[in-house]
Specification:
With 176 residues, this protein is an alpha+beta fold. Helix content is 26%, strand content 29%. The longest helix has 16 residues, at 24-39. It binds coenzyme A.
Length: 176
């Protein structure tokens, strides 16, 4: 990683530096909640940093995608990735619960770097089965996730327009 950038796991003794990604809820989660989530095994947060700055953060937790959260056409496509004997009504996933890039460093492809890190980690270095990445994407971030290969779980849902976040998924099996 360039410029001595590194991704480290947030521990209880990690000293958080100031951070602003432009979203108050995400900023607040990082500064005030992320360590408690880790302490209760609810989510693990990772920090992208260099010597001087906290560049970005993201948190992940176990998840699943299920037929109930999808529409029929999308679920048919999802199932097609698996042999018939492995057709199920849900599949294991990892959820990107939070993701924020420092305002001063947005559009430098740090978000993409993080998504690629998650993709790589959960395909090559994961200790449990995990076939998908999920995210409840904030409206403004949908194009970012689409550029990173994510799809809407319910593309035809008229409710998508009125919701604050929209469920999206990435199929890790395409990387095999
Ligand atoms: C959304 C966010 C994580 C993207 O991170 P980033 O490092 O700025 O994005 P990247 O530079 O990796 O962008 C990758 C691609 O997505 C595009 N992109 C990024 N954000 C976009 C947006 N809001 N709308 C349209 N395209 C976007 C970039 O132009 C780039 O396209 P390219 O490959 O053609 O150059 C970041 O802007 C952010 O932290 N936003 C505030 C918090 C937020 O919305 N988090 C998401 C929570 S679900």
């Amino acid at each position: 990683m360039q410029n001595n950038r590194r991704i480290v796991r947030l521990t209880q003794d990690y000293v958080l530096r100031p951070f602003d990604c432009g979203n108050a809820d995400l900023n607040d989660f990082l500064q005030n909640d992320a360590k408690a989530y880790a302490a209760h095994l609810l989510a693990v947060t990772y920090i992208l940093e260099d010597e001087t700055e906290l560049l970005a953060f993201f948190s992940v937790s176990n998840d699943r995608i299920s037929i109930n959260e999808s529409d029929k056409a999308t679920w048919r496509k999802i199932k097609q990735e698996f042999p018939h004997s492995k057709h199920r009504s849900d599949y294991p996933a990892v959820k990107i619960g939070r993701l924020g890039v420092n305002l001063a460093h947005q559009n430098e492809h740090l978000g993409r770097l993080i998504i690629n890190f998650v993709k790589d980690t959960f395909v090559t270095n994961n200790r449990t089965g995990c076939a998908f990445i999920t995210v409840d994407a904030l409206k403004d971030a949908i194009p970012f996730y689409q550029k990173n290969g994510f799809k809407l779980l319910k593309p035809s849902d008229p409710d998508n327009l009125g919701k604050e976040t929209v469920p999206m998924y990435y199929d890790l099996t395409q990387l095999l």
